[in-house]
Amino acid sequence: MPNGCAATTNCATRTWDSKVDRFVFLTLDGLTRGAVYAAFALALVLIWRGTRIVNFAQGAMAVVPAYLAYSVTTATGSYWLGFLVAIASGLLLGAVVERVVMRPVEQAPPLNPVIVALGLALFIQGVLGMLYSNEYRPPPIPFDRTAFTVGGVPVGSPYDVFVFVAVLALMVGLGLLFTRTPAGLRMRSSAFAPEVSRLLGVNVGRMLTLGWALASAAGALAALLIIPTELGLHPTAMDLAFTAAFTAAVVGGLDSPVGAVVGGLIVGLLLSYMTGYVDTDVAPIAVLVLLVGVLLVKPDGLFSGVRARRV
């Protein structure tokens, strides 16, 4: 009898340890995903704060720099050169889209920018499909994805560390830009008080273009980080990531950069837990339920302390 009890105790202990190990792994995986969704959600927040437009083309726009990075890396063998080209092309693409495509409809009825953005997304995906085909391509990665283990528990890989560092650098950089630089302060004033800013001599149009450029660069970074963890590079590779990032932005509050970060982490953890404990097919439904729940309870988002401004 004592041996049976001991055996039962050991079995229960091993089962408990296995559950804890699984929880730790899923939590770390969710935080890694969530960090990327937070970066993508920040891109949506940047544009919304300046123009009150949800850029439904953000996912397709993010894939363009990823393809350019793939082309440069394949041609030169240098991941980091491709990385720099992707960020620079993201900045340029955002500025061009704002000036050429979105500016004519920024003051139009709210439905017009949505239709234009959706049309732009389809156009970009069609062009990428013609240039690169619709095959899934394996994107290059700078670090190994083999997980570290502590006490036999996977605790992340070198690539996961790279993801956290890259997203943290983005968040710190944007925070310093908006709070410590004249350009950042002009961008904030242009977003919240455009008429007053014009009277003070601020070129509001230029600030909006800069906001779109920064948002597109943030989206490019998110694409570079998340595509290697998915099926591969494809014209529609960022569609699901856009859905998760949009949910994160809405959950946190479209006017709140901090809310975008927290919302991204929440969505990442939710997807990881649902995939690990329930089923992969249920995870997108859980994100939809989260989105609907927040919209019903607090439509302005969890971190929205005041009513959204009107323009």
Structure notes:
74% of the residues lie in helices and 1% in strands. It is an all-alpha fold. It has two domains: 189 residues, no CATH class; 66 residues. Strands 1-2 form a two-stranded antiparallel ribbon. 40% of the residues are buried.
Helical fraction: over 70%
Total domain units: 2
Instruction: Record the strand order, biggest sheet.
Output: 1-2
Oligomerization category of the chains in this entry: single chain
Low-confidence stretches: 306-311
Radius of gyration: 21 Å
Strand % is under 5%
Distance between the termini: 76 Å
SSE ordering: HHHHEEHHHHHHH
Number of helices: 11
Provide a short characterization of the protein structure.
The protein is an all-alpha fold and 311 residues long. The protein is 74% helix and 1% strand. The chain is built from 11 helices and 2 strands; from the N terminus they run ααααββααααααα.
Descriptors:
311 residues, mainly alpha, 2 domains, two-stranded antiparallel sheet, 11 helices, 74% helix, 1% strand, disordered C terminus
SSE diagram, text form:
Layout: H1 2-51, H2 58-76, H3 79-102, H4 111-132, E1 149-150, E2 153-154, H5 158-180, H6 182-192, H7 194-199, H8 204-226, H9 239-252, H10 257-278, H11 283-297
Antiparallel strand pairs: 1-2
Helix pairs in contact: 1-5, 1-8, 1-9, 1-10, 2-3, 2-4, 2-8, 3-8, 5-6, 5-8, 6-8, 9-10, 9-11, 10-11
